[in-house]
Amino acid sequence: NSLRGGYYYHIEKGNSFIAGGFWGPNAADIKHIRQQISADPEGLKSILDQKSIKNTFGGLVGNQLKTAPRGFDIDDPAIDLLRYKQLILTRYFDDKEVLKVNFHQEVVKSFGKMRPFLDYMTDILTTDLNGELL
Prior knowledge:
- It is built from 6 helices and 3 strands, in the order ββααααβαα.
- It has a 3-stranded antiparallel beta sheet with strand order 1-2-3.
- A hairpin with a 5-residue loop joins strand 1 and strand 2 (16-22).
- By secondary structure, it is an alpha+beta fold.
- Helix 1 crosses helix 2 (41-48).
- It starts with 5 loop residues before the first strand and ends in a 9-residue tail after the last helix.
């Protein structure tokens, strides 16, 4: 498996944050992600429901479609996840946090908490719907 997803950090007065995930997945990847999520929505939901994910990032963010993506039913049990065009976890920091001596350690710790999400996404992007390596 090659690791998938990316990390991002942004330092700006009044607007500092870290993020990770899939900002601009290509058409083939987003289709595959959606197929995998539709086949087993509980996999991603269980990751996003983890206490460390919720407490650190709140939840998944990113641009979304207003309706069902092409090829998916509006009544799909995972439609709330399938609408995402980007799949990103984000944590904001206020200016005081950014200026703390241990800020870099907090960033590393937060990126570490993101790993289950990125590992899950790597797994689904490197396997077919039967779980076989692509």
